[in-house]
Write a structure and sequence with these properties.
This protein has three helices and five strands. Helices cover about 35% and strands about 35% of the residues. It has a five-stranded mixed beta sheet with strand order 1-2-3-4-5. The chain is globular and about 40 Å long. It is α+β, with helices and mostly antiparallel strands. InterPro entries: Restrct_endonuc-II-like (IPR011335), tRNA_endonuc-like_dom_sf (IPR011856), UPF0102_YraN-like (IPR003509). One of its GO terms (molecular function) is endonuclease activity.
C-alpha cells in the first residue's frame, strides 16, 4: 500500500510543479546510486525533488535521512552530466511533503550542498 501511496504522492507533486509553470523533465530517474523522484525545469534552473508522504508533513519530513540525501546528491551529479552546462548547471534541491489528505508543502532549496 505504501508503494502506491508514494507513487500517488509523486504524481500529485509533479502536477503541482506543472501548475506553477515548471516543466517535468524526468520522473523516478534512476542513476547508478539510486533514484530521483521528480526532476523539473524552472527557467534556467533544474530542480531535483525528493517526495515524502506520511500522515502529516512533520512525519514526512522525518523520512529524509542523511544517507538518502547523499544518494540524491550522487544521482543529481550523474544527471547533471546530461545537461548542456553539465556540472556548472544551475540546480536546486527541493523536498515535497505530502500529508494524508494529499496537501503538498514544498520546501524549496531544502538540501544545500
Amino acid at each position: 500500500m505504501s508503494y502506491h501511496a508514494g507513487l500517488a504522492a509523486e504524481d500529485a507533486v509533479a502536477r503541482h510543479y506543472v501548475r506553477l509553470g515548471h516543466r517535468v523533465i524526468a520522473r523516478r530517474w534512476r542513476g547508478m546510486g539510486g533514484e530521483i523522484d521528480v526532476i523539473v525545469q524552472s527557467g534556467d534552473d533544474t530542480v531535483f525533488v525528493e517526495v515524502k508522504q506520511s500522515d502529516t508533513h512533520a512525519a514526512a519530513a522525518t523520512r529524509v535521512s542523511p544517507r538518502q540525501i547523499g544518494r540524491l546528491f550522487d544521482c543529481a551529479g550523474e544527471f547533471m552530466g546530461t545537461l548542456p552546462d553539465g556540472m556548472n548547471a544551475s540546480v536546486r534541491f527541493d523536498v515535497a511533503l505530502v500529508d494524508g489528505t494529499g496537501r503538498i508543502e514544498v520546501l524549496e532549496n531544502a538540501l544545500m550542498t
